[in-house]
Amino acid sequence: MPKRVLTGLIVSDKGDKTVVVNVERKVKHPLYGKIIRRTKKYHAHDEGNEFKQGETVRIEETAPISKLKTWKVVDRVNTHATPERVDVDA
């Protein structure tokens, strides 16, 4: 069975080797049909304490590490990447 991978925003990095990641998803309301946002917080393992609050990261499901941690941080998602400049010869 493949491991689930989610993308979210780090809302806390105060714990040692732990970050709290807020994952947002959009679902359709069952009765009214409006698209609404649902959020959930996941405690994820950060071995080197290298990720900071405010960064967008990908987390992957793992075997339980502690009471609350069953996820680990895979990598940083570069949301502030600027596209490469393309020169168009007209």
UniProtKB/TrEMBL annotation:
**Gene Ontology CC:** ribosome
Task: State a single Pfam family of this protein.
Answer: Ribosomal_S17
Keyword tags:
Ribonucleoprotein, Ribosomal protein, RNA-binding, rRNA-binding
The family database entries (InterPro entries) matched by this protein are listed as:
NA-bd_OB-fold (IPR012340), Ribosomal_uS17 (IPR000266), Ribosomal_uS17_bact/chlr (IPR019984)
Q: Does the keyword Ribonucleoprotein apply?
A: yes
The yes or no answer to whether the keyword Cytoplasm is present is: no
The record's SUPFAM superfamilies line, in alphabetical order, gives: Nucleic acid-binding proteins (SSF50249)
Q: Which CDD domains match?
A: Ribosomal_uS17
Question: What is said about its interaction partners and assembly?
Answer: Part of the 30S ribosomal subunit.
- HAMAP family, per the entry: Ribosomal_uS17_B
The record describes the protein's role as: One of the primary rRNA binding proteins, it binds specifically to the 5'-end of 16S ribosomal RNA.
Q: Name the family the entry cites.
A: Belongs to the universal ribosomal protein uS17 family.
Its recorded name reads Small ribosomal subunit protein uS17
